[in-house]
Amino acid sequence: MAASYILLLSALLALAASPAMAGDPSALQDLCVADNTSDVFVNGLACKDPKLVKAEDFFFSGLDKPRNTTNKVGSNVTLVNVNRIPGLNTLGISMARVDFAPYGLNPPHTHPRATEILTVLEGSLYGLIHFQFNHGTRNAVALAALSSQNPGAITIASAVFGSKPPISDDVLAKAFQVDEMTVHRIQAQF
Fold first, then answer.
1. pLDDT tens per residue across all 190 residues of the chain
2. Is 130 marked as binding a ligand?
3. What is the per-residue DSSP string for 9-29?
4. Which of 9, 130, 183, 187 registers the highest number of CB atoms within 10 A of its CB?
5. Is residue 88 a contact partner of residue 149, using CB atoms and an 8 Å limit?
6. Is 184 annotated as a binding residue?
7. For the chain, how are helix, strand and coil distributed in percent, rounded to 5?
8. Where in the chain is the domain with CATH 2.60.120.10?
């Protein structure tokens, strides 16, 4: 009994005296500018030789310019990620400018590899579940910041109604509480 007590006390004392450290490790290098010409396969993009890095690798011109919103949904997303700014490689960030025509929509979507924060610079937007809709009578502009250098985007309607192989019509009709003819009309658009 005394041996058990001493063993338990020793274990508790060892746990209490153990230093514990938690946190992200320090970066192995200061920067890793993406080398878009490399044939090396890595998770992300291979690093450019630091001697070949230029100021242009950290610059993108154009977020200040409105984009054409004359399309089916009335919006245009200008994504600025590692493909446009190679200096973002390994930093885990990207951003986007979203232009909206009056009553324009950024359709419901998800970002499978990122979370997003959106700031409305001009106009007014609905921003529920995960879409944005310009409910005003003038243009709107928003900037989004995402927690990934390659956030991806999956548009819900396209994924559901344009999936290959298709989701059965009766399942879609029941899920969206519409008739199968309506499902066929929607699927024809994808």
1. 676 667 655 655 565 565 555 444 555 677 889 998 888 877 778 999 999 999 999 999 999 999 999 999 999 999 999 999 999 988 889 999 999 999 999 998 989 888 999 999 999 998 866 899 999 999 999 999 999 888 889 999 999 999 999 898 988 888 889 999 999 999 999 8
2. yes
3. HHHHHHHHH-----SPPPPSS
4. 183
5. yes
6. no
7. 25, 20, 55
8. 1-36+64-152
